[in-house]
Amino acid sequence: MENLHPLMTRYRTKLKQASELWLEGFREACCLHRVAIYCLRSKQLMIRTGQCFLLNGFIFLGSIFILRSLILPTLEWILPLGVPDGYQEPCLSEMPIRLYAFLRLGLLQLIYALWFYPLYIFSFILSTIWYNDIAQFGLTVTEKDGPTNVAPSTQKEPSTSQNATPVDKPTDLGRVMIGIAEQGYSLLLLTLFFLEVYLTGFVPYIGKALNFILLSWMYAYYCFEYKWNFSGLSLDKRLDFFESNWAFFAGFGSPCVLAIFFFSPLVSYGVMAVLFPMFVLTAAGTDADSVVDAHKTKWRGEELRKLPIFYAADKLLMRILSLLPVEPQEHTSDKKAL
Question: pTM to 2 decimals?
Fold first, then answer.
């Protein structure tokens, strides 16, 4: 028992550190007053944020509200679910009931095919473009207020300096190609991670809890990725910083997930599409490096261990890429010689 006491004390200390960082991340994500401040300081940001709210909040969520409160009750009234009152021949009534159910299902699928699915695709494409603009305008506002760190202070590259702006990105062709390759790899990595998040939802007993935690990390990464992209931070440094401060980012992503966790997929998308630009703006104004460093100073060097969040997705992606045919370098140089 005496040997277990130091171990239990250490675990309690680590749990306390993780809890403090989680609460700091949660608190930073809830600083939504920054959105109003930034929108008041940038007309372009206000317009883009308003357009995003109009499309996803008013049109998309409004369409779902109309479907559930008006269209579905009307279909159930015209094509009833059960036997009408006073009907004396239940055997003969089975045929119209089945016909009504078939027509109701067909009309509902037609509404989804002609209305909701095209609207969903249109909203997804347009929102993706607008999110990038919102992040850029938001970072411009934060730079006017004063520089904020977008990466760990240990990073010494010029691209991660405090005064970095989108126009400071390198124009050298080689570095541009590396940046494109990193963006492609990041997209594939997050796609596989999303698949991992989806599959954990089917795990018995603990699936929902795992799904919540992984979703929190995924949304937190999405929110900060815009900031890291415009600062020119390389992918390996992003992943290292994220996995080294996993508790903070789990807390930051939790409000995003809480807002959508208990809704249906379509409603969850609409709610997240409205709230996501707000969390992107709060991430733009969050100095994660300073928050984490303040706690590390208080802990006197006893830091939380790095958690390999993207390990499974990264290994699977590397395995898939290794199966792709690659032309040997010697063969390529022989062709050039000819």
Answer: 0.81
